[in-house]
Design brief:
The protein is α/β, with parallel strands linked by helices. 32% of the residues lie in helices and 32% in strands. The strands form three sheets. The protein has a six-stranded mixed β-sheet, sandwiched between helices. Helix 3 packs across helix 4 (61-72). The N and C termini lie close together (8 Å). The structure holds guanosine-5',3'-tetraphosphate (G4P) and sodium ion (2 copies). The site of one sodium ion (NA) has 4 residues, from strand 7. Its EC number is 2.4.2.22. It comes from Desulforamulus aeronauticus DSM 10349.
Length: 190
């Protein structure tokens, strides 16, 4: 995880004690080499688990999802924050509450793309309080699919979402674990 670690050290910015900016390589401008490294690392960690689908949520999960899907040779499905416009398309739907925005959004996936036969890896860029992840796991449950695990690029451990979800039995692999952003400084494990 050499590239990602270097970028975290040199190109991330602590915005507040809660928020880290990674706009120059993940969230706005995307560094393709970093994304390839991330995808390969998730594939390595979940090798042998027979994942046949990668699931994320738009927008910033898509780049992470694509390189992961490429490395696992599986399709990437991303939950949409608007119901697909095709009128007769049947969807699974769940709600994600955002603490940062203090609002809920509904997310949707078409039933035809997530089924009981699927062995799913969920990926996302950030894990904070875990609301996004909970919303995605509900879609997997509704489909009767099997959740193999979760791959997260940056887990903000101090916000507690990872702990709660691991306690519920979900395997979560985080590439970077941020223990605190106190004093405007990034404190992380690799
Ligand atoms: P949670 O999902 O873990 O509970 O966290 P929260 O509600 O706080 O996250 C809301 C949005 O903010 C998510 O993106 C999440 O990825 C992002 N986010 C959370 N913490 C940070 C952070 O420290 N830095 C940055 N840059 N983003 C953070 P989203 O609303 O799904 O937006 P999108 O960018 O994927 O479209
Ligand atoms: Na985001
Ligand atoms: Na995200």
């Amino acid at each position: 995880m050499q590239l990602l670690t270097e970028k975290m050290k040199n190109n991330s910015q602590v915005v507040s004690e809660q928020i880290l900016r990674v706009d120059s390589f993940i969230n706005h401008m995307i560094d393709p080499e970093v994304m390839l490294e991330i995808g390969r690392e998730f594939a390595r960690r979940f090798a042998g688990t027979q994942i046949n689908k990668v699931l994320t949520v738009e927008a910033s999960g898509i780049a992470v999802g694509l390189t992961t899907a490429m490395a696992l040779q599986a399709p990437l499905l991303f939950a949409k924050k608007r119901k697909p416009s095709t009128l007769d398309q049947q969807c699974y739907q769940s709600q994600i509450y955002s603490f940062t925005k203090n609002e809920s959004v509904d997310v949707f996936v078409a039933k035809e793309y997530l089924t009981a036969d699927d062995r799913v890896l969920i990926v996302d860029d950030f894990l904070a309080r875990g609301e996004a992840l909970k919303g995605l796991t509900k879609l997997v449950e509704q489909a009767g699919a099997h959740l193999v695990g979760v791959g997260i690029v940056i887990e903000k451990v101090f916000q507690g979402g990872g702990k709660t979800l691991r306690n519920s039995g979900i395997r979560i692999e985080s590439l970077i674990k941020v223990n605190s952003l106190e004093g405007g400084k990034l404190h992380f494990e690799e």
